[in-house]
Design brief:
This protein is an alpha/beta fold. Helices cover 44% and strands 21% of the residues. A 7-stranded mixed β-sheet has the order 3-2-4-5-1-6-7, sandwiched between helices. A hairpin with a 2-residue loop joins strand 6 (157-162) and strand 7 (165-170). Helix 3 (67-74) packs parallel to helix 5 (100-113). The chain is globular, with a radius of gyration of 15 Å.
Length: 178
């Protein structure tokens, strides 16, 4: 049985670098499933910088909405799939007026189905700060927190990254994974 993984952390905490290292350690044919939508020049530059740092080590798949479908398709070809990131995916769903809870349930079911590839989910932990001052931000925080709880249930390994250092919350320490 393949061990799926959830990597949480704040903005610029090192969670993506940790997840990339983990993916390269456990897989020989890794895919990087990017969920971002490029809406402005700053995001364009950020995406290009991330792509350049990854180089040719990953096959990049871009899918901002249909995450479960993209995972099922990628799992036919790749032995590890890094999804970066769930909070951007949730944002995309909200902006498209899609039902986030239904999409998270679909992702949960997809993770149960995908056994031939390890899935590493990266997401920003947004519930550690002050309560947001507007309804939309509170809704986003609540949906992200609920998604993290659901997905942590099914993932064998859950890490929290701060200052580039991993804290094992569930499962095996990073060096023990195979």
């Amino acid at each position: 049985m393949t061990r799926h993984c959830l990597v949480l952390g704040g903005a610029r905490s090192g969670k993506t670098a940790f997840a990339e290292g983990l993916a390269l350690h456990v897989g020989s044919k890794p895919a990087y499933l990017a969920t971002t939508s490029i809406l402005d020049s700053e995001m364009h530059d950020r995406v290009r910088s991330h792509q350049a740092s990854r180089g040719e080590r990953f096959t990049t798949i871009e899918e901002p909405i249909e995450l479960s479908h993209a995972l099922l398709k990628a799992a036919k070809v790749h032995d590890v799939i890094l999804v970066d990131c769930l909070t951007l995916w949730i944002t995309n769903l909200l902006l498209a007026n899609d039902d986030v809870a239904t999409a998270v349930s679909e992702l949960y079911a997809t993770l149960e189905e995908v056994q031939q590839a390890k899935v590493i989910l990266v997401s920003s932990e947004v519930g550690l700060g002050i309560v947001p001052d507007n309804a939309m931000a509170r809704t986003f925080r609540d949906l992200a927190g609920s998604a993290h709880q659901r997905l942590a249930e099914i993932c064998d390994d859950v890490y929290f990254i701060a200052a580039g250092l991993p804290l094992t919350m569930k499962g095996d320490a990073p060096g023990a994974l195979s």
